[in-house]
Amino acid sequence: MSQEQDQVQGDAGKWRIEVDRLVCAGTGLCLGTAHGRMRLDGGRARPVEDVITPDDAVTDAAETCPMEAITVRDATTGEVLAPLR
Ligand code: SF4
């Protein structure tokens, strides 16, 4: 099996968290909403882990971020799961 196939299989059903650190205002709101999933680094949010098992707290954080700095995607397809605009 190729490394790429391994990667796809390994991420199947998982979500990827992205934070636009140029947009994040460092409010820390997402740390409370998605407890243990986000952290502050240099005054901006960062995911603790980029690829996670599905966790609705993370989509809640993406939906409630005042700057819309968080995007949650299907790790395999790249489909945007939150925020839904
Ligand atoms: S809620 Fe949004 S703006 Fe606030 S720290 Fe998290 S990502 Fe940044």
Automatic annotation (TrEMBL):
Top-level taxon of the source organism: Bacteria
SUPFAM superfamilies referenced in this protein's UniProt entry, alphabetically: 4Fe-4S ferredoxins
Protein name (record): Ferredoxin
Species per Swiss-Prot/TrEMBL record: Streptomyces roseolilacinus
